[in-house]
Amino acid sequence: MSTLLAFEEALEAIKQSASVRVEQQIIPLTSSVGRILATDVVASICVPPNANSAMDGYALATNDWQAGKQFSISQRIAAGHAPQPLMPGTCARIFTGANIPAGADTVIMQENAQIVGEKVAFNEPPRQGDNIRPKGQDMQTGQTVAQAGETLSPMHIGLLSSLGITDVTVYKPLRVGILTTGDELIAPGETLQAGQIYNSNGPMLSALVTQAGHLVSHCIHAADTPKDTEDALQILLESCDIILSSGGVSVGEEDHVKSVLEKLGTVHLWKIAIKPGKPLVHATLKGTPFLGLPGNPSSTLVTYHWFARLLLSICSGQKAQSPQSYLIDAGFNRSKTITRDEFLRVSIGQDGLAYAHPQQSSGALLAACQSQGYLHIKANTQIEYGHSYSFYPFSGF
Ligand SMILES: Nc1nc2c(c(=O)[nH]1)N[C@H]1C(S)=C(S)[C@@H](COP(=O)(O)OP(=O)(O)OC[C@H]3O[C@@H](n4cnc5c(N)ncnc54)[C@H](O)[C@@H]3O)O[C@H]1N2
Ligand code: MOO
């Protein structure tokens, strides 16, 4: 146990080792949702470019208002049409989105106006600025409105369009190679023979990588031999920016990933004090980052969420963000402690307390599907009913 690296130390070491692995490209803004900005975006105009009306009504100068005064309507301003300066002592008919004429400093909504023949009166005294959206209310010229490393959301597409932007500089998608290992594994769709199981980590890792916005460029399966493992890695090294693998990282005679990594590159760390996921290995192969995740499906999931997600995110140019978490009280006790940080698959009950799924085996995946997130129990900690622990919803990864 003494050789295990502490969870936070491993996380920091992997974070420190990582850097952007992809080039930049310019693409149309309309095709950029989900892509990662490579440069800051600075507003080149004010939005809105001019003060405009927030209501359909009448624009006037507050100083001109008097109780009972009937105003002539000196112009009609529709959105999209430039106004004339307001004739002193009059008001302008104005519509939502139309520019405020020079000389007006308030808009009275039409529901609060009384039409008197050709004229209009306003009972309530107006206040300066009422119903006027000032120039630059949303964005000011020179303001940084999006930063390199942000993932472009539909809101960004709208925001940048409102600046008149048509193209953005983004990072090319990170090409991720996935290697699964194990003689016992066959692809879903084939017929199971004695001793075989279906390869579930390959499809799960592909889905996790795709969901995070990266590109799965190759998914290869290798038998449990050093040669097969090495051949597969050589293929992935030719076409991928980063490689993830599953299985073959423990100490058994059939576990060849780590020894092949030592032959082809440099192993930075192996074995972390976490449960599940202990035999995680981090290496560099010919300049390409490599993360070897343990083969047990829940170990694969946990190590992907905590380590691979972070590494892929930095390598793809994204800002590294910690997963969202909040403190939740446990709805159960556990006096047994372990010397590893533990990530229990839990659900939040109607009472707001966290309940551990009864099946916490690292070989079982249904528990993760039936849970809402992880309860992080630090090493050597008992779990006490009503005490709070960090809860990380799966949706935050
Ligand atoms: N003597 C020891 N044995 C083990 C230790 C240890 O410290 N000493 N650690 C255990 C822990 S903890 C873990 S986690 C596993 C990790 O082992 P590997 O990463 O080498 O994974 P494999 O042995 O290849 O497989 C483990 C398990 O997972 C299944 N598996 C593998 N790949 C897939 C896949 N793509 N889809 C579905 N299931 C997969 C595999 O059949 C095994 O059952 O080692 C422990 N042993
Ligand atoms: O570290 Mo392993 O993932 O517990 O079975």
TrEMBL record:
CDD domains in UniProt: MoeA (cd00887)
Function: Catalyzes the insertion of molybdate into adenylated molybdopterin with the concomitant release of AMP.
EC number: 2.10.1.1
Family per similarity comment: Belongs to the MoeA family.
Broadest EC class assigned to this enzyme: transferase
MF GO annotations: metal ion binding; molybdopterin molybdotransferase activity
Residue ranges of domain MoaB/Mog in the record: 177-314
Gene3D superfamilies attached to this UniProt entry: MoaB/Mog-like domain, MoeA, C-terminal, domain IV, Molybdopterin biosynthesis moea protein, domain 2, Molybdopterin biosynthesis moea protein, domain 3
Protein name: Molybdopterin molybdenumtransferase
Keywords attached to this entry: Magnesium, Metal-binding, Molybdenum, Molybdenum cofactor biosynthesis, Transferase
Catalytic activity entry: adenylyl-molybdopterin + molybdate = Mo-molybdopterin + AMP + H(+)
Required co-factors: Mg(2+)
Record flagged with keyword Magnesium: yes
GO cellular component terms given for this protein: cytosol
Biological process, per Gene Ontology: Mo-molybdopterin cofactor biosynthetic process
Source species of the chain: Marinomonas arctica
